[in-house]
Amino acid sequence: MNSLDNYKAIKAEVDKLKGKQNLIVVTKNQSIETILPIIKNGHLHFGENRVQEAKEKWIPVLKNYKDIKLHLIGKLQSNKAKDAFVLFDFIHTLDSDKLAKKFSELELNSERKIKYFIQINIGNEAQKNGIEYVRAKDFINLCKNDLKLNIIGLMCIPPINLDPHPFFEKMQQLKINNNLNDLSMGMSSDYNEALNFGSNYLRIGSAIFK
Ligand SMILES: *Cc1c(COP(=O)(O)O)cnc(C)c1O
Hints:
The chain has helices at residues 3-15, 32-40, 51-64, 81-87, 97-108, 136-146, 165-177, 191-196; strands at 22-26, 45-48, 69-72, 90-94, 115-121, 131-132, 151-155, 182-184, 201-204.
């Protein structure tokens, strides 16, 4: 099957749930020619990992498709925050005080409001980005109450080669305990499991662009 057919199959699967699950088509490393059939089919939510790549790829497209929403799902350095702020509608990888303060400043000086997920290092892995589980509550409160950021939910990438179930479950509990609405969890290999734990933003790349 081609990527449009793969997309349609996954989209149908997600729509069948009749909930408010959002499918983010992850387009990192894909050319716009490859993505265009999915755009023309009316899809609106796309995810990218790198600010520079996203700028080059999406700014020309957004001129013609103004309803598209871009999601930053990769690590963000604070010196790229300004560029990210003007391009992306959702940031999934808020993971430091420095970055949160930077976005707070940007919002104070702009009409623009964007939506944020806080990334949680749910497996407590040394090499992974994200806020430590034990610091999550304090960081959520800092972002929401002090910095007035529109924190809609939590995001994680569970450890590879381990059953994601306990990590997704912990994330769902953390979301509930902190009165947040949304969860960004589930990639090509584990989105079915993520749905079982209330994920409503699925980030899917390789199952579409095989
Ligand atoms: C690449 C990536 C995805 C998509 O992963 P696939 O396995 O290709 O579906 C999702 N989330 C993040 C953070 C990614 O970097």
